Amino acid sequence: MSYTKGLQEVGDGLYAYLQPDGGWGWSNAGLIVDGDSTLLVDTLYDLTLTEQMLRAMRDAVPAAARIDTLVNTHANGDHCYGNQLLAGSRIVASERTAEQMTELPPAAMTALLEQAPEMGELGAFFLDCFGAFDFRGIELLLPEETFSGELAMQVGDRELELIEVGPAHSRGDTLVHDPAGRVLFSGDILFSQAHPIAWAGPVSNWIAACERILALDVEVIVPGHGPLAGPAAVRELKAYFEYLYTEARARHAEGMTPLEAARSLSLDRWADWGESERLVVNIANIYRELSGDEEPLNQLAAFEQMAELARSR
Predict the structure, then answer these.
(1) Edge to edge, what strands does the sheet with 150-155 contain?
(2) pLDDT tens-place string over residues 15-56
(3) CA 13 to CA 156: how far, in whole Å?
(4) Looking at the whole model, is its pTM more than 0.85?
(5) Which of 243, 239, 274 is nearest to 261 (CA)?
(6) Is the bond leading into 272 cis (omega within 30 degrees of zero)?
């Protein structure tokens, strides 16, 4: 299937909404329909983008005129900041996702964008990542129903599985699995053809999440970012993290900083993946695990290191 913006049918009553190029903030979403019953997987980063998506869904799928249920796969704003346009729908997320959603409100993103021109190279990097989005006027609508572990859901006669696999990318990452359709909406457990970013970790949990996906009988995976994929992409992601573990362990023993380690890695096999600056965050996450450091990752420091790595490449 082509990687173009908009709605694509990936199975009977199963749709992906894709946003190329899949980089920072350009997330995917999904729609599941059975008869008049509907479930939306994630909203987008701002209200304009989310309204464009909902309009495209309504135009293509009449049942989408009313979204019964919204599932947020995790707490990052590019998967939930559009929630307020689904007022009246049942909103479901993992308990840890719901807790994390309050930590970076849209108003904080607005303030950061306003301050970015005065923040030097870090501000320039921040604008490169997020300057295309408009966070003004967003009032974050939080999930009213939460779960831990797994949750069975119905969309009409269609049976779905919500499977919590975080903490990995975020604290409460959730997969949305349609067993009959053999389709999986992975959230940001899969960045297709791009470097992932382990904000939460540990990375060993992310490897376990890959193994969990590979144990499912799925044919099509709608990733959180990037083009549609299949199990081969998950095997490649697992290999990426396993490689990073080996290389990071050696560099940690040598006393390299995460930034020094990231600069030393060639990553030939994954050289064409986007957002290579995220490598330093993934290595830092592995370092924290190796050191037994349980302090949450400092996101400002992480962006400073990514900006520095991006400048040097």
Answers:
(1) 150-155, 158-164, 174-178, 183-191, 220-225
(2) 999 999 999 999 999 999 999 999 999 999 999 999 999 999
(3) 11
(4) yes
(5) 243
(6) no
Encoded tokens for 238: 């697992």
CB atoms within 10 A of CB 82: 28
What is the chain's Cα-based Rg?
Answer: 19
Return the structure tokens found at 137. Answer: 């006027």
Q: Find all residues with CB under 8 Å of 256, minimum gap 6, and list them.
A: 264
Contacts 24+ apart (CB under 8 A), 242-248: 242/207, 243/269, 244/203, 244/279, 244/282, 244/283, 244/286, 245/203, 245/204, 245/286, 248/283, 248/286, 248/287, 248/290
Strand partners of residue 185: 176, 222
Q: How far apart are CA 49 and CA 132, in angstroms?
A: 11
- What is the tens place of the pLDDT at every residue in 212-245? 999 999 999 999 999 999 999 999 999 999 999 9
Whose tokens are 């840890």? That residue is 96
Are 290 and 252 spatial neighbours (Cβ–Cβ below 8 Å)? yes
Residue burial 141-172, b: 16+ Cβ < 10 Å; e: rest:
bbbeebbeeebebebbebebebbbbbbbbbbb
Question: Which residue reads 């995790």 in tokens?
Answer: 74
Q: Is the peptide bond before 202 cis (omega within 30 degrees of 0)?
A: yes
